[in-house]
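Practice set, problem 2.
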Amino acid sequence: MESMSELTVVLPTYNERENLPRIAEAILAQPLELSLLIVDDNSPDGTGEIADRLAAEDPRIHVLHREGKGGLGTAYLAGFRFAMDRGAQYLFEIDADFSHNPADLPRLYEAARKADAAVGSRYVKGGGCEGWSRLRWMISRGGNIYTKLVARTRTVDATSGFRCYSRRVLEALMALDRIDARGYAFQIEMTFVAEALGFRIVEVPIVFTERVGGESKMSSNIFWEGLKVVWGLRRKYADILKGGKVLAGGAAAE
């Protein structure tokens, strides 16, 4: 079995042929010893073929092909398993469209090393969004406030998709085998369960930028899934909240 770096970036793709070569180059240009795992959901635009070409040219790049579009959450879980089976100890999430700046990867890693996980946060001091309409900002910010009030999460930007997890966090979360949100609600569920298990999440301020190419994957179905998932989290994980499965100490930091 091929080995991967202890620091591995998991990059889900679906119809990202415009962005993939540039984002892969930008990720691997960072001053970290990184592997890049591209998880492609059989993109009809040929993204998977581009990923294979990049992997043939650079041994730091690996590709996991899936049969079809299965959702962001399942793509990340498959990627995490694949990478951890090959030695990864710290695993990053990042979007393929340059909404997240790869230059922030070292800051996320340093923060995760001092805690259990790090989240790139738009809504803590120093963070922000560029290129968004007022409506989109209100929907995103409102979704995080809703999550905080209903699920009682401590992480301010629970919907952020720019993260670094230590292996111990992912092993604990995936051992539960209950995380099943498919869209962006996946980030909320992961945050909630990590906090419930007692892991310490720190937030690193980032500036989120509107995608530079391709089409957004956001849809009304993803939005409504988020509302539904948040509402049911405390019931779904009531056993953990009662303290029966706390695996680590520490509280989330804002």
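Problem 2, part (b): a different protein.
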Amino acid sequence: MSRLLPDDQVSEAYRLTRQSVLELLTQIPESSATVRVPACPDWTVQQTVSHFVGVPEDLLAGRMEGVASDAWTNAQVRRHEGESLAELATALETTIIPFDAILPAIPRPSNSQLVMDAVTHEIDLREALDLSCVDSSPSLTIARAWLLGMIERHDSLLGDQLEAVTCSDFILVRALTGRFSISAMDAHGLPGAQIAAALAGTPLKPPA
């Protein structure tokens, strides 16, 4: 876990990503709510935002059983079923003050995992809505560090190999969060089959 960034930088990156998502929700029409999210094919934009809102809600409420599992995230989606994007934005804003109070106390590496999940779903939303994404940001740097640590625990040689790649943080993070197929990873100069093997059995496994 030596790659992880300092906790204050991790907390600030989460706040920046949350603000970016809130700004996004003020810019897109309500009709975007029903758009399917290709990176999360079972979810619409509304459902993906419901998960984004549900994470700080659950951490504040102490609902940690099955954290990060499908059951945990699907409960967040069900809880906000039928809510508009504006209502979801309000719900997210409601968490800001209490969540920022506990954010510095979230231990590592869980705090970096939180940022990884947040920035991943922000990009999922932007891609679904055909909006631009950046190649680098503090959140992508933190996500990259957490993901490389996860890979290293499974395959230390692969972790070292990926540490040395020259692709952008955006490409590497998308690959390591299961957003690229093996052939797509290969096209970016990444060892697709090795990455797929390292991600097998996780929620981040790549699509067929």
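Answer key, part (b): Residues 112 and 146 are 6 Å apart (CA to CA). DSSP finds ten helices and two strands in the chain.
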